[in-house]
Structures are given as structure tokens and as C-alpha cells.
Amino acid sequence: xxxxxxxxxxxxxxxxxxxxxxxxxxxxxxxxxxxxxxxxxxxxxxxxxxxxxxxxxxxxxxxxxxxxxxxx
Length: 72
Fold this sequence. Notes:
The protein is mainly α. The chain has helices at 6-14, 19-30, 35-42, 46-62.
């Protein structure tokens, strides 16, 4: 079986996050919602969305032993 690519690795790492962080990453990076849309969907402030996204990115970069994936 072939090694997973960067996208698949990022997706797998996202599912290792706790739910609050996973939800924000999936909505932003995989579904393309804006911070304001995520805020409305989850019922939290835009600042909280931003903090969770930053923490999730940091956590994804430190999960496992692979190279961190850069987000847009």
C-alpha cells in the first residue's frame, strides 16, 4: 500500500485532535468556511475560533513524527 500524501496525513492528524479543535480545523481547512461562519456554526466567538485554529495547527505539527503541514 502506498504511503499517504500530505493531505491524507493532515486529515489523519486532524482526527487525533480533541473535538473542539477538530471541528474548527475541519470546518476551516477542509470545508473552506470563514472564521465568521465557523463562529456562527459552533456558537462561539470569532476570537475563540481563531485561538482554537492556532492551537490545532500547533498540535497537528507536533503529532507523530512527520513534518508539519503548512496551512494557507
